[in-house]
Design brief:
Residues 334-352 have a biased composition (Basic and acidic residues). Residues 46-295 form the G-protein coupled receptors family 1 profile domain. One of its GO terms (molecular function) is complement receptor activity. The protein is mostly helical. The chain folds into two domains: 2-318, Rhopdopsin 7-helix transmembrane proteins (Up-down Bundle), CATH 1.20.1070.10; 324-368. Helices cover 83% and strands 3% of the residues. The chain has 14 helices and two strands, in the order ααααααααββαααααα. The chain has helices at residues 2-8, 10-13, 26-57, 63-91, 97-131, 136-139, 142-159, 161-166, 185-221, 227-259, 264-298, 300-306, 310-318, 320-367; strands at 167-172, 175-180. The chain has a two-stranded antiparallel sheet with strand order 1-2. The protein is globular.
Length: 368
């Protein structure tokens, strides 16, 4: 029925109906469908296991654990959407209607923003914990953390509104496609520049600066505590960058295409982003299934001892606030030991003073 409607309105609804769509290329759609299928099989149960491990098995919910929980929720939600896009790529047409076209792509964009913002918060939290450990207690309160997370999710939902505005299900040729449609080139520039700035440049700028400062402090002070958890979060950062970079590169290509004057170069740029959009978008989904794999390898030493609770123990060990409390406790213990040692020295000196005073008193007694 949808295909018949598209056939009857080819010329009226979409004037340049002969143009290629993002699902016309058989090679890219097949690759995209295969990637998304593997991503769903690994990522959906993997992120559900992370959520269950934290909620049911973790004894303490540190700041790092809460951030990882929210990251797993964002990634798991994204994984739950993949079957719709697999069907889209396999059938090479959109069959879920106009409303679902907007909602699904809005949720995709929101979860992309949420993932990178949460990873940025992890990096900033590590920075504060390493550079200003005496102030970490100010931001480790549960109420403060929950408020910050609520603000992040609200900002993410607001930043994703362009997906509701520009994403539409329309007839393009004989089929229905769910794509970003723009009346003006300025709309293309606005949408994809916003994604590039908010979803990549700003958060990764903060992340890179944070880790440069952290590594400089570690090198300067030979601070070797919690290096394992630092490596885990650094692996999460690099993995996200690796799989989302192609998507943002294609965004830049499309923005350049929109700004470029008509000619062979513009046609070539348009050909590149049309043929690459399906594959790069599918590759971006891999980042959401990669984190459970990273956690598994990071926590495999716990498996034999902890069983299904191994991931909960891993997250508890990665919590920097527990390590900070231990360091403060150790420093307090060392100060107590110094006090005890000082009191012992005083006690040792007291008999000598008594002996000296008695020895000094004896001649007086004898003098009497």
């Amino acid at each position: 029925m949808a295909q018949r409607n598209c056939l009857s309105s080819v010329n009226s609804t979409f004037p340049n109906a002969g143009n290629e769509t993002i699902v016309d290329n058989k090679t890219t759609t097949t690759m995209g469908a295969l990637i998304l299928s593997l991503v769903f099989l690994l990522g959906f149960p993997g992120n559900l296991f992370i959520i269950w491990s934290i909620l049911a098995r973790a004894r303490k919910h540190s700041v790092t654990t809460l951030l990882i929980l929210n990251l797993a929720i964002a990634d798991g939600s994204l994984m739950a959407l993949t079957p719709f896009f697999i069907v889209y790529l396999v059938m090479k047409k959109w069959v879920f209607g106009k409303v679902m076209c907007k909602i699904l792509f809005y949720l995709c964009l929101a979860n992309m923003y949420a993932s990178i913002q949460l990873i940025m918060l992890m990096s900033v939290y590590r920075l504060v914990a390493v550079l200003w450990p005496q102030r970490i207690s100010v931001i480790t309160g549960r109420r403060t953390v929950m408020r910050v997370l609520a603000v992040v999710w609200v900002l993410v939902m607001v930043a994703s509104i362009p997906a509701l505005i520009f994403r539409e299900a329309r007839c393009k040729g004989p089929i229905s496609v769910c794509d970003s449609f723009h009346d003006k080139d300025s709309d293309v520039v606005l949408q994809y520049t916003l994604e590039l700035v908010l979803g990549f440049l700003i958060p990764y700028g903060v992340i890179v600066v944070s880790y440069i400062c952290i590594l400089r402090r570690i090198r300067r002070t030979k601070f070797n505590r919690r290096i394992r958890s630092e490596k885990l979060i650094l692996a999460i950062v690099l993995t996200f960058c690796l799989f989302w970079l192609p998507y943002h590169v294609i965004n830049m290509v499309q923005v350049t295409w929109a700004l470029y004057p008509h000619g062979p170069v513009k046609d070539k740029l348009g050909d590149i982003w049309y043929k690459s959009r399906a594959v790069t978008s599918s590759i971006a989904f891999i980042s959401s299934c990669a984190n459970p794999v990273l956690y598994f390898f990071a926590g495999k030493s716990y498996i034999r001892r902890e069983g299904l609770a191994f991931m909960a123990r891993l997250f508890e060990g990665a919590g920097i606030d527990s390590g900070t409390r231990k360091s403060r406790q150790n420093s307090q213990n060392s100060r107590d030991k110094d006090k005890d040692a000082g009191s012992v020295m005083l006690k040792d000196k007291e008999p000598d003073s008594v002996t000296n005073s008695s020895s000094n008193a004896k001649p007086v007694k004898n003098g009497k």
